[in-house]
Amino acid sequence: MAKGRSRALGLSALAVGALAFLSGCDAYDVGKPFGGFGWPDKTPTPQSQQMYEMWIWSVVAAFFVGFFVWGLIFWCIIVYRKRKGDTELPVQTRFNLPIEVLYSVLPFLVIAVLFYYTAVIQTNVNKLSPNPDVTVEVVAFKWEWQFNYKSAPDTDSSAATIATTTGASDYVPVLVVPTGKTIRIEETSKDVIHSFWVPDLLFKRDVFPGNVRNVFEVTIDEPGSYVGRCAELCGTYHSMMNFEVRAVSPEDYQKFLDAKKAGKTTPEALTAIGSDPYSTTTSPFNMKKDAQQVPVSTGN
Ligand SMILES: [Cu+2]
Predict the structure, then answer these.
(1) Quick one: 38 and 78 in the same domain?
(2) What is the per-residue pLDDT for 11?
(3) What's the 194 CA to ligand 1 centre distance in angstroms?
(4) What does the DSSP 8-state code read for residue 168?
(5) Rounded to an integer, what distance in angstroms lies between the CA atom of residue 61 and that of residue 58?
(6) pLDDT tens per residue, range 141-194
(7) Ligand 1 centroid, distance to 228 Cα (angstroms)
(8) How far is the centre of ligand 1, averaged over its atoms, from the C-alpha of 168 (Å)?
(9) Is 246 in the same domain as 148?
(10) Collapsed DSSP state (helix, strand, coil) of residue 117
(11) Ligand 1 centroid to residue 208 C-alpha, Å
């Protein structure tokens, strides 16, 4: 009995030590072992990279706890199974202070470590910079999106709209942003609650009507097209309320804005920078809104 108890204590000490050690590690270069344990392939923003690391170490912690518990279960099943000739009940232990302390302290430590990193990463993800490089006002309405490119955040009284892109029933709106820059998104809704969701960015935030403006910032390091969805059931055509985020080089972004300012539509301005004029990622929900099947003139 004493031997078993010390082994259990030794195992748990090892688990706690490993957890503390691993949680403190810099996991930036781990890549995506085991397919990222279900995490999406892309982590195109520093924010999603941090969340990915949090996810991986949470999985590691869960495995440590899992293996420890499975180990104890199988150990009991094997070592204390009923043998031939066993006629008496085994010793009935009512209290075991070390084990009771252990199963109170150990989960607390696990929760404390996970809570600490959750709080740190959440604060980083929600952080707003004093001077974002790009500000876009996202206006949601039933059942479309409008993107207003602003000259400054709305905390600045001089903020004006430079260019606008609006979705229509035959046009999936494309939000063009520069790579490697701080993009501030300011959200507002004209009617009900919607939700701005870009799955690849691992980020989703509700869009409220009225005076509540949800604001967040993101930096997209990898150029590419990222599908966007409304993630708050907002009525009949909620499922068709899609958009696309197109991350292009800062030079192309500037050219795109100049073309928009010169009066070009979004598809024309996208063509001008050599980018796909229409959304390319809205499958499988493109249905009737597949703008590539309708005349070019509809996009604005
Ligand atoms: Cu919606």
Answers:
(1) yes
(2) 60
(3) 4
(4) B
(5) 5
(6) 998 999 999 998 988 888 899 999 999 888 899 999 999 999 999 999 999 999
(7) 11
(8) 14
(9) yes
(10) helix
(11) 10
Same domain, 25 and 54: yes
Q: Tell me the pLDDT tens digit for each residue of 125-135.
A: 999 999 999 99
Give the pair of three-digit tokens for residue 256. 């795109």
Q: 163 and 231: one domain?
A: yes
Phi-psi region of 38 (alpha: psi -120 to 50; beta: other; left: phi over 0): left
In degrees, to the nearest 5, what angle opens at C-alpha 291 toward C-alphas 217 and 227? Answer: 30
Full strand arrangement of the beta sheet holding 214-218: 161-166, 144-150, 134-141, 183-189, 214-218
Q: Token pair of 194, please?
A: 């919607």
Q: Hey, what are 131's tokens?
A: 């001077």
| 143 C-alpha to ligand 1 centroid (Å) | 6
Interval 100-123 mean pLDDT: 93
- Angle, in degrees to the nearest 10, between helices 46-79 and 97-126: 170
Instruction: Please give the residue range of the domain that contains residue 51.
Output: 2-82+91-126
Instruction: Specify which residues 203 forms β-bridges with.
Output: 198
Tell me the three state secondary structure of residue 240. Answer: helix
Please name the residue that has the structure tokens 């010169």.
Answer: 262
- Can you give the pTM of this predicted structure? 0.75
For residue 221, which phi and psi values (nearest 5 degrees)? -85, -30
What type of residue sits at position 147?
F
- Token pair 């206006």 is found at 139
User: Measured in Å, how far apart are the chain's first and last C-alpha atoms?
Assistant: 76
CA of 192 to the centre of ligand 1 (A): 8
Query: Which two three-digit tokens encode residue 135?
Result: 């500000």
* Of 214, 30, 62, the residue nearest 126 (C-alpha): 214
Element spanning 146, H or E = strand 144-150
On whether both 212 and 68 belong to a single domain, the answer is no
Q: Same domain for 216 and 120?
A: no
Q: How far is the CA of 232 from the centre of ligand 1 (A)?
A: 6
151 Cα–ligand 1 center, Å: 26
Amino acid at 27: A
